[in-house]
Amino acid sequence: MHSREYFGRALRHTRFFRLHVRDAQGNLTQSVVCKLGELSSVLDEATRYDKFANRLPPAATPRKVRVQRWGAAGDAGVFYQLASGYDENVFSILHDGSRIVETINELKRMMDPWARGQERRHFSDIRRIEISDADFAYVRGELNFDWIGSLENQMVQTSWSCTHGDLHGANILVDQKSMPILIDFGDMSDGPATRDPITLELSALFHVDGPMKGSGWPGDSASSVFLDINTYLKNCPSPEFVKACRTWADARSVSKREILAVAYAYLVRQPKYPDTDKDLIRGLLQGVRVAFERT
């Protein structure tokens, strides 16, 4: 287990592991993904898997094998059986243009059954899915934008559905045929249908293992992120990846403003982590504001 500083508090995190079970002759008999952590967190994930993941095609997720809740004091584990061959993830193939597009297109197809109907929501409602009011108060002071209050009060029409909720590139395993499978189900919930593709796109810049983190891109083009995609993608390390995520988001959204609200919610959550690029966050948030004013 490990901990991380979050607003001065040390939090215990759950962790994922890959297990390969072999027989006496060394033959692989079973490949397992397991999540270990506090009992309440593990049980919550197992419940969310049963409620949400089972609505997806069988190939979209591994099969839950068991929840081990005894023998480790206050910790527990949930185990999923994984087909062999899922040795890469979206982050590791991000710069392989043809493979990454194929993988994201397949993700879109797999997750389409989650789409439901439409709901009208405030920016603040969508933001609360990512960060609570209490934590947002701290973040808001750090960002120091005088326009955030008015944006929080804006309403947008959204396409509402089930969502993975933490669809960064390391949570999507990929096999040699570019077929994806989802792991880590602890944040599955109802939300805007564009939450997953926008999270995936931005995770390449902000996740601790994001391949484009610290690349210097998008630099001064950050403010054009949702206004002029061609300007935004200038010097992008993986334009095919960004375009595929954005195409997926466009297909799931009711309007451009839904995408902006989801991106806003993701971005204002990032300052709570001490290792994020605050200037990049501010630049992209300015891009959200400018695009909202022009749509």
Question: Could you explain the architecture of this structure?
Answer:
The chain is of the alpha+beta class and 295 residues long. The chain folds into 2 domains: 2-82, Phosphorylase Kinase, domain 1 (2-Layer Sandwich), CATH 3.30.200; 88-293, Alpha-Beta Complex (Aminoglycoside 3'-phosphotransferase, Chain: A, domain 2), CATH 3.90.1200. It has helices spanning 39-52, 97-111, 123-130, 133-143, 148-152, 195-206, 229-232, 239-252, 256-269, 278-293; strands spanning 2-6, 9-13, 15-22, 28-38, 63-68, 75-82, 88-89, 115-122, 155-163, 172-174, 180-182, 189-192. A 4-stranded antiparallel sheet has the order 3-4-6-5, covered by helices on one side. Strand 5 (63-68) and strand 6 (75-82) form a beta hairpin. Helix 6 (195-206) runs antiparallel to helix 8 (239-252). The longest helix has 16 residues, at 278-293. The protein is globular. It starts with a strand and ends with a helix. The model is unreliable at 1-12 (pLDDT under 50).
